Amino acid sequence: MRILFCLAGQRLREQWNKAAALIDLGAHEVTILHVVDDSLVATIDAVQHYGLPRRVGTEREARMQQALQEAGRRIIAEALAAAHSAGVPATGLVRRGQPSTVILQVAAEIGAEVIILGRQHPGLEGKILGGVCRFVVDQAPCTVVVLR
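^ that's the sequence the OP posted. Answer follows.
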């Protein structure tokens, strides 16, 4: 079975352990995905524009995008270390874009049969799903597991 494990980077080990308790990850083909959300830099630019007299600027925007990419690579490296230490020969991907859309695109690319999502804000009223989780659960053509 092909599994797409999507990580935002928060509580990574905890999410890995929860998924491993549910599914024998070592018996399946696992791809670990982290999506760098491009909208973060645009949001920072808008906030700075309205809060300060100048915008972020092209050079600073490029540095911010690079920092987000590097953070994504660190998240994937940590996730792969956890997978490999558990005996799971996983592969890692870092992509840029709108997270819910990218998750569905990668799921289609690899032919995922299961998508595992870790909720970013598990305490958010304890009952509701965030926008990314809700979109993926509603639109995915395969089983979706949401870790709490």
